[in-house]
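Folded chain entry —
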Amino acid sequence: MRIITVCLGNICRSPAAEAVLRRALAREDLTHDVTDNSAGDRGVEVASAGTADYHVGERPHQLTIEVGEQLGYEFTTRGAQLTSEDLATADLLLVMDESNRANALALAADDAQRAKVRLLGEFASDADTAGVREVPDPWGHPREQFEAMYRQIEDAVPGVVAFVRQTLRSRGT
C-alpha cells in the first residue's frame, strides 16, 4: 500500500504528516523498506508531496524539523511535487486542506483516482462530532502554529492507521 501526504509546498504539513504516519505505522509493524522487493504488499510505503513546485528538492521547514525532532520524529525526504503518476500509483492521498484537495483532484484521470484523495481531517478523533477540519498552513507563522499542526496531525494519524489496517486485512495482506 502506498500513501502520499500532500500540502502546498511540501515543507511543513505534508512532511510532518509523513513523519508522524511513518512512526505510527512502524509501531504497528505495518511498514516495509521500499527498496526491499521481498516485502511485496505486506507493508505500507509513505511519501509526501506538494501541489506546487516551490520547494522541490528542499528539506522541510526549519520549524517542521525542530518541533518534529523534539517529538521524536525523523525526516529523510526532500520536497517533491505531486504528479498524475502519483495518483495512478498511490492507494491513498491525504491532503491537508480543500485547496490541496482541489489541486490533487485536478490531476486525477478518473473516479477511481479521485476516490483516493481524502482530507487528513476525515480521520481525526472528533471528525464525526466536530466535522472535518483542515490542517492550517503554519508557514510564516510562529512556532506555536507548528506545535498546533503536530497536535492536529497526531490526533488524525490513529484513524489513518486503523483505516490502513482494515484495508490491508480486506486485501488479505
Summary: The chain has a mean pLDDT of 93. Residues 7 and 50 are 5 Å apart (CA to CA). The domain at 2-93+101-171 is CATH 3.40.50.2300 (Rossmann fold).
